[in-house]
Design brief:
mainly alpha
C-alpha cells in the first residue's frame, strides 16, 4: 500500500540519518594525524585511556566535530527555509549573498575588537540586511523568478565581496592569513561548539510545529492567505530565522558555501516536499555532510589542512549548475 511504503521509506531514512550522524562524528574524532582506535575511544568515554587520547578526543576533535555538525545543520535548515519562502530550489545562503552579508558584519566586529556576542550580533545584522536586499530587489513589483533571483543574489554577493576585499586591504598584515582562511570556511577557528548546537536544537523545536503551515506557504502566498495563514508575519519570521541561522554558522566557521543548496535538494528526491520531515532531516543531513567534509579537509593533505569551504564548493557547484540547467528545461 502507498501509505505503508511511504511510512517505511521515511522510517528507514530516519534510521539511516541517525546512524550516519553517529558514524560521521565517530570518524571525525577517530581520524587525524594520530588515529585513535575504537577501543581507545571507548576507554576515553569511560574516563580512562591515555592522556594523549583524552586531549585529542575531548579537547580538540570532539568540539570541532560537534561545531561542524551543528554548522552544517544550521546552513541546511536555512537553505530549506529560503527554498520554501521563494518556492525555488536554487535558494541558498551562500548563493544569495546572506553568507557574504554575515561575513562583512562579523569581520567589522572583529576588526573593531568586539566580543563574541557582538560579533554574532553584527553577523546577524549583515545577514538580515542582505536578505532584505536580495528578496526585496528580486521581488520588485511582480513575482520571484529564478533568473531575477539569481541575478540579484549574484550582484549583492559581489557587492559584499568588494566590501570584504576593502576590509582585508585595510587590515593589519599579521591578521590577514587567519581572516582569509576563515572567509573560505575553516573549522579550525571554531571555539565552543555549544552556541551553534543550542541554536540548531532550538530552531528545530521551533520549526516542528510550523511544518504544516510551511507546507501551505510552499504552495504560494495567495493560496496560503486563502486558507487563513498570516502570510506576512510568517514570511518575516522566515527572513529573521534564516538570517539568524546563517549568522551563527558564519560566526562559527566562516563562509561555507552550498550546504543549504545540496542537502534540501537531495532530501526532497528521497522524502518528498513535506516540511515536517524535510526540516529536521536537513539538520541531520547537513551536519553529516559538513562533518565528513571537515574530516576530509584536515586529513587529505595532512598535516596541512584545507578550508572546508573548498570541499563543499566542489560538491555544490556541479549541483547548482545541474539545478540551473533543469530550471531552463
Amino acid at each position: 500500500m502507498p501509505g505503508v511504503d511511504s511510512g517505511l521509506r521515511h522510517s528507514l531514512t530516519w534510521l539511516v540519518l541517525i546512524l550516519a550522524s553517529l558514524l560521521a562524528l565517530a570518524l571525525a574524532v577517530a581520524i587525524g594525524s594520530e588515529t585513535v582506535q575504537p577501543m581507545q575511544i571507548l576507554a576515553v568515554l569511560r574516563g580512562e585511556g591515555e592522556p594523549l587520547h583524552r586531549l585529542l578526543l575531548l579537547e580538540l576533535r570532539a568540539p570541532r566535530a560537534l561545531a561542524a555538525f551543528a554548522t552544517g545543520g544550521l546552513l541546511a535548515v536555512a537553505g530549506a527555509l529560503m527554498q520554501v519562502l521563494l518556492r525555488n530550489p536554487l535558494a541558498d545562503p551562500y548563493v544569495l549573498g546572506l553568507s557574504g552579508g554575515a561575513a562583512v558584519g562579523a569581520l567589522a566586529a572583529m576588526l573593531s575588537g568586539l566580543g563574541t556576542a557582538l560579533i554574532s550580533g553584527s553577523a546577524f545584522a549583515g545577514a538580515l540586511l542582505s536578505t532584505l536586499l536580495v528578496f526585496g530587489l528580486a521581488h520588485g513589483t511582480g513575482s520571484w523568478t529564478p533568473t531575477r533571483l539569481l541575478l540579484t543574489g549574484v550582484v549583492v554577493a559581489a557587492g559584499w565581496g568588494a566590501v570584504i576585499t576593502l576590509m582585508l586591504a585595510l587590515s593589519p598584515a599579521e591578521r590577514l592569513p587567519g581572516m582569509l582562511y576563515w572567509l573560505m570556511g575553516d573549522m579550525s577557528y571554531a571555539r565552543s561548539p555549544w552556541p551553534p548546537v543550542l541554536t540548531l536544537a532550538l530552531a528545530c523545536l521551533l520549526l516542528l510545529p510550523a511544518g504544516r503551515v510551511l507546507n501551505v506557504l510552499a504552495r504560494g502566498p495567495m493560496q496560503a492567505a486563502a486558507l487563513g495563514v498570516a502570510v506576512r508575519p510568517l514570511e518575516w519570521g522566515i527572513y529573521i530565522l534564516a538570517s539568524l541561522l546563517t549568522a551563527v554558522a558564519v560566526t562559527t566557521a566562516g563562509s561555507v558555501g552550498f550546504v543549504g543548496l545540496v542537502v534540501p535538494h537531495m532530501l526532497r528526491l528521497v522524502l518528498g516536499n513535506d516540511q515536517r520531515i524535510i526540516l529536521p532531516a536537513a539538520a541531520l543531513a547537513g551536519g553529516i555532510l559538513l562533518t565528513l567534509a571537515d574530516t576530509l579537509a584536515r586529513t587529505v593533505l595532512a598535516p596541512e589542512q584545507l578550508p572546508v569551504g573548498v570541499i563543499t564548493a566542489l560538491l555544490g557547484v556541479p549541483t547548482f549548475l545541474y539545478l540551473l540547467y533543469r530550471s531552463r528545461m
